[in-house]
Amino acid sequence: MKDILESLLKTLDQGQDAIFCGIVESSGSAPRTSGARMLVLPDGAIRGSVGGGPVEGASLARARKMLDLGESHVLLPFDLNSPTAAQAGMVCGGAVTVLLQRLAPEQRGLFAKLLTLHAEQKRPALITILAPGKEPVLNVWSAATGLESMDLPESMTAELARKASKTRQNFSLQGNGLTVFAEPLVAPTVVHLVGAGHVALATSRVASFAGFEVVVMDDRAEFASPGRYPEAREVRVLENFNGCLKDLGPDDFVVIVTRGHLHDRDVLAQALRTDAGYVGMIGSRGKRDAVYRSLLENGFTRADLERVFCPIGLPIGADTPEEIAVSIVAELIRVRAGAQE
Questions:
Q1: CA 102, CA 276: separation in Å to the nearest integer?
Q2: Is the dihedral of CA 319, 323, 325, 327 positive or negative?
Q3: Domain with CATH 3.40.50.720 in the chain
Q4: Which CATH number is associated with domain 190-336?
Q5: Contact yes or no for 85/46 (Cβ under 8 A)
Q6: Hey, how many other C-beta atoms are within 10 angstroms of the C-beta on 284?
Q7: Which terminus in the chain has less CB density within 10 A, N or C?
Q8: Model confidence over 201-212: pLDDT tens digits?
């Protein structure tokens, strides 16, 4: 989404219009969820995707026509259960509706504001409001600004604030004849791998592939080296593990895989003093219980320890470092998606 918005700003800065395409409704096993975005530029080039196949092809053709005709917006419904969709290889089923909107240079300020709030880590959301018989309205929400120059029913405003402040997922609200689509724009979740051994090496690769940013740290330079971790955003060689975790927030996940119980215990204590959105520690239940006893004796509470995922990873019978990495990242994805139950 961020890359699409940056391309959009460049186009608007040049005084040109563009067509902003987005899935605003989906049901069944549609190929992408509500909020998938595609930008069609004045020369017909595209950025992003609304799912490929006939959905994307028809949306692209209609967007190019809109650029020629000057239309403001179009809603395109697609039935993916139809024989046409099946013939095109889209056997997922379901239905989607794609909203195509013409964006003009005078709307630049809204998208610049969205990116500024994102850069400031204010967790903004792009809001699309649909009302029968009216043109779709775009706006920006953040906890700091709310919805400027726009009033929604009080119940919808409260629900928008509640959901947008805590989720990474696109969502919709309906009521009073309105449909409100919210697309949170949040920074990628950062996985802080504390320890750079075999499990960390495999976990870094899988986590990066799954869309996480990775930071690796260890006190052994031969293990914590950029050459071993080319996919990592940062690789840090520590003098020791003291004070290695600071100022972490909900978009920071901590995976503790050091070479020893004492290091794990010390790093876990640091992680629990932060607001990290996930804290996981490798080890058996016996190791976990010993570490927990030590932390309880040093002032931590049962509530603190309930934050910890240990043994780490989903229970899939993982044995090798690569299998353990898959189980860990699967758990990270589950937490990131808010599907912990």
A1: 40
A2: negative
A3: 190-336
A4: 3.40.50.720
A5: no
A6: 10
A7: C
A8: 999 999 999 989
